Amino acid sequence: MFTKVRTRIAPSPTGMMHLGTARTAIYCWAVARHFDGEFLLRIEDTDQERSTAEATQAILDGMKWLNLDYDNKEVVYQMNRLERYRQVANDLLERGLAYKDYTTKEELDQLREEQKARGEKPRYDGRWRPENAVGKEIPAGVTPVIRFRNPDDGIVTWNDAVYGPISVSNTELDDLVIMRGDGIPTYNFAVVIDDFDMQISHVIRGADHINNTPRQINLYKAIGAPLPTFAHLPLIHGEDGKKLSKRRNAVSVMQYDEMGFLPETLFNYLARLGWGHGDDEMFTREQLAEWFDLSDCSRSPAQFNMKKLLWLNHEYMKKADNARLVELLKPRLEKRGADLSKVKDLCGLVGFLKERENTFEALADASMLFFADNPVDASSLPGLLKDKEEASFEAMKLFVEKAPSIDWKKDNIYGLMKEIMDEKGVKVLHLAIPLRVLATGAEKTPSIDATLQFIGRDRVLARLKEGMDQWAKQSAGN
User: Does position 249 have pLDDT exceeding 90, yes or no?
Assistant: First the structure.
């Protein structure tokens, strides 16, 4: 029936690319790659009131950022296929499998209210089915919709690749509108024609589409199309246990780029959110393609956990190439006003700081210590050093005197500090405190030897000399 495995992701361009859409796309990609098949992209843009070019670009950006490489050279857009939908609808009309319905919106609203009043499930009553419309006069000025004539009896059954066998009686289904009066197809109709024409072998989507599936199966049968394998994925819930919502959660894929996450982190995390391979928490794209099986997907909603995502991003950052991280970090530093020429070894600085930070935003914030030129201020040192101020001052004088003669690396800087500590009989904090305060303007920094290395000898010594002058005058004044 299908010559090869083909999957697709088919988002609507009515907003940002949602995390749920991204996870579905990852699973579709993994199935296609596992079977050496094809993964395709389709944009379902028939909602003309809500579809925007910006939202379409957001989808393309999200796919590119996650490195979800699709195989169709040209993305399929539903609005470019209107003639195809009309052809199929007309064929169904000619074969008596669809009919024109002239019911007005007001009549439908009245029908629903009457059914609700009787405690019935609101549904179309088939009033314009050919057998029910004999002798009816077609109302003037009413543009009809086209409805699919759903089978009256029988059961629709499919073996869902995630949930197993599912059955729905045709008596539960009414006649579905397949073409609106403006000639635009409805979702359930267009998706069936598209998947048939694109030869999609596996339809993988959220569990909120389960109710659509029996209707679509009847449409597949009506047009003589082979049935794909259906797989429905439980939805993703937020940490509050509720369905992810943009009002409560960061749900846009590209928000995670802005927040400072690596794309491979989000790819890995979303893949693991509802599927697993033993205890493996981290894996490559190639491993996912090798291991992935829809039958291993959970039937229960997955819960998004930001702490877990931050942990995973930290692990990926630690493993990432420093030169790559520098290129990703530069725009964030420049946005913060950093003069990148001030730090000569950006790769080394990133390698040092990435062990401590878990996002690029945090990394950029931490890096600014090395670019800032805070005012040199020695006024806090007496209070910080208390009765060791004089000994600390003498130790700092020796540091400033000897610092120009060493190779400016953190091990040598610490070696000089240790030498002075032994000579002057002071503890490390009696050097570290004034070094931090004078060299950076901050009382807390990462390890002081590495901090001084990355700030650079010339900048450090210039600040220390200015600070020592302040400190001396301050002490003399007391």
Answer: no
pTM greater than 0.85 (yes/no): yes
Active site residues: 246
pLDDT digits (tens, 9 = 90+) for 436-453: 999 999 999 999 999 999
**Residue-wise pLDDT tens digits, 194-230:** 999 999 999 999 999 999 999 999 999 999 999 999 9
The whole-angstrom separation of Cα 294 and Cα 86 is: 35
Beta carbons within 10 angstroms of residue 141's beta carbon: 5
